[in-house]
Amino acid sequence: MSAEQSKNDLLLLTVEQMARADSDAVRAGVPAVDLMAAAGKAVADAVQERWSPRPVLVLCGPGNNGGDGFVIARHLQQAGWPIRLAFLGNQAKLSAEAQYFYQAWQGDIADFSVSLLEQTELVIDAIFGAGLARPLEGIALEMITAMAERKTAICAVDVPSGLHGSTGQALGMVAPAELTVTFFRKKPGHLLFPGRGLCGELVVADIGIPASVLDEIEVNVWQNHPALWQQNYPWPRLDGHKFHRGHALIFGGETLTGASRLTARGAMRVGAGLVSLAVPSKVWPIYANALTGAMVSKLELGQETEDFEELLLDPRRNAIAVGPGAGLVAFESVRTRKIALAALVTERATVLDADALSAFASDPQVLFDAIAGPCVLTPHEGEFARLFPRINETANGVMQDKLTRARLAAKQSGAVVVLKGADTLIAAPDGRAMINTNAPAELATGGSGDVLTGFIVGLLAQGVEAFDAAAMAVWLHGAVAADFGAGLIAEDLPDHLPKILNAFIQQQALAREVR
Ligand SMILES: NC(=O)C1=CN([C@@H]2O[C@H](COP(=O)(O)OP(=O)(O)OC[C@H]3O[C@@H](n4cnc5c(N)ncnc54)[C@H](O)[C@@H]3O)[C@@H](O)[C@H]2O)[C@@H](O)CC1
Ligand SMILES: Nc1ncnc2c1ncn2[C@@H]1O[C@H](COP(=O)(O)OP(=O)(O)O)[C@@H](O)[C@H]1O
Ligand SMILES: [K+]
User: Which residues line ligand 2 (CB under 6 A)?
Assistant: First the structure.
């Protein structure tokens, strides 16, 4: 598969974009009835690959998702499965293609009723798909609530009914599926929590929509994956020396000294040519004692910012990280702000994390106004709420989804925003975004974010553009943790990185040989 093709496969379509892809395909000559036939067949195949024949209840809703349900029921029935089918809606209002498959269905059609679940071992949820306009109510809601309570095995068509495909948010109740089969491309809601947890295994089926329809749709959200950035990965040059690989400067505070040391180790392992820590002179011995490969510079009491600025007079210190362990109590907070602003004024590539974000909570605009060069902000949800309170405001008690919030924050701040969590978002001010999906829950351990900051600043030092550096770092961070597995602590992340990088090099070499 070519790089362009895999990039294309990683695109995520909103519900509206998917509807557009669908209608453009029809306009390009693919009959709508063929799309529905292919969609239903793909779901029936996926079901037969995973389950042995058993009593199945197919729940068909009023739209085209329901239309798919009729196709699925027919295939499974022809394969000898015991099928019951229930329909919610008005036959006269079905689309032409759904009407066609409704007519083609040979069996009985029941009304929705919770009692149907009694002799059911597998439910095909074809109630609502991408077209859900408002929260579920009435018998649809009762059905889904009963399915969730009984923990019936569910195969969802396109999305588990009630889940919003663009946001990953539940519109009221959603029964978690074991398997979700979607069509053509994934949607953000399949990858963003809670949606990701509700979809179970996710299968993307080709239903005959030509990829060329994407040429007309402006898509700028992807699932984060090396195919998107591996051509920009900064492998060392054969004739290189350490200054070709950049010099990362990291500020270290005086209380939680471990945090910035983790950052430094992350930056070193990811390949920065040189790494320096700049730390208050009174704690210099702690750092100097603990670090071998990194250099430690002293910032004298009362003139820490000036000393930091002096270090920045050397243009070879080309990437800066401030935040991990920087300090927030009283005078520390003021110092953290000053150091962050001193970094930003150079317009060199800068990562601000942790305390360097919280230090601006009282006036985030001061931070945003100072961002002029390449900058990456790496808030977790708590830090995000402090910096972007307006973006987090709720309407009817509901906050906007994570993708929207990260993109608004990137636009507002002028920085690449890495909104961390189990479904970390990477968003650029120009609207591009990636959703990361390879991170295991083992990363929820103190200090893992500090290492991520180190990976980012190490890549920035090597000249990688901010959005790519953030995407690479987040992916590597997840890959390392997933490969390490149980028992992971933050210290393991830098030290296990070489294994992942070496595997990555081998894969790239293989790909080159194949080409
Ligand atoms: N390329 C594609 O996108 C294809 C899509 N197909 C299927 O078509 C589906 C999309 O079809 P539709 O746009 O008809 O969407 P749905 O099947 O989700 O149905 C929407 C219908 O439900 C009604 N509705 C929405 N919210 C409601 C609520 N809360 N309570 C009661 N009624 C509500 C709407 O008024 C509309 O009539 C996809 O999910 C997929 O399963 C397939 O048929 C094949 C091709
Ligand atoms: N449940 C989870 N699944 C996957 N990744 C997670 C999970 N919880 C946290 N992470 C990741 O772990 C890191 C934690 O960073 P952060 O919250 O800054 O912690 P710390 O300050 O202790 O380093 C982030 O990269 C985040 O995306
Ligand atoms: K569904």
Answer: 354, 380, 420-422, 424, 439-441, 443-444, 446-450, 452, 477
> Is 161 known as a binding-site position?
yes
Asked if this assembly's ipTM is beyond 0.95, the reply is: no
For 376, the enclosing helix (H) or strand (E) is: strand 375-377
Are the beta carbons of 317 and 323 closer than 8 angstroms?
no
How far is it, in rounded angstroms, from Cα 336 to Cα 40? 57
Ligand 3 ion: Cβ-proximal residues, 5 Å cutoff: 125, 129, 156-157, 161
Kindly state if the Cβ of 132 falls inside 6 Å of ligand 1. yes
CA gap 2, 376 in Å, rounded: 30
Please report, in angstroms and rounded to a whole number, the separation of the first and last CA atoms in the chain: 9
Length of the chain: 515
Distance from chain centroid for Cα 200: 16
Q: For the segment 27-40, what is each residue's pLDDT rounded down to a tens digit?
A: 999 999 999 999 99
Q: What is the DSSP string of 216-264?
A: GS---EEE--GGGTGGG--PPPTT--GGGG-EEEEE--SS-HHHHHHHH
Residue stretches of the chain with pLDDT short of 70: 1-2, 5, 511-515
Report how far residue 168's alpha carbon sits from residue 99's, in angstroms, rounded to the nearest whole number. Answer: 30
Instruction: Give me ligand 3 centre to Cα 157, in Å.
Output: 4
Q: Which residues pair with 222 in a beta bridge?
A: 11, 434
Whether the bond between 194 and the residue before it is cis, its omega within 30 degrees of 0, is: yes
List, for residues 84-136, the tens digit of each pLDDT value: 999 999 999 999 999 999 999 999 999 999 999 999 999 999 999 987 888 89
Most ligand 2 atoms within 8 A of CB, residue of 265, 443, 445 to mutate: 443
How far apart (Å, rounded) are the C-alpha atoms in residues 384 and 417?
A: 10
Q: Tokens 């609502």 — which residue?
A: 128
Q: Is 379 annotated as belonging to a binding site?
A: no
* pTM, entire model: 0.96
* CB neighbour class for 332 (10 Å; exposed up to 12, middle 13-18, buried from 19): middle
Separation of alpha carbons 177 and 152, rounded Å:
9
Look at residues 483, 482, 14, 474 and name the one whose alpha carbon lies nearest to residue 219.
14
pLDDT value at residue 234: 94
Does the annotation place 449 within a ligand binding site? yes
Extract the tokens encoding 102.
């409704």
Q: Are 125 and 143 in contact (CB under 8 A)?
A: no
Best CA proximity match to 127, nearest among 83, 82, 188, 85: 85
Binding site membership of 129 for ligand 1 (Cβ less than 6 Å): yes
Ligand 1 center from residue 14 Cα (angstroms): 14
Q: Is 160 annotated as a binding-site member?
A: no
| pLDDT confidence of residue 413 | 98
Contact 95, 32 (CB under 8 A): yes
Is 200 annotated in some ligand binding site? no
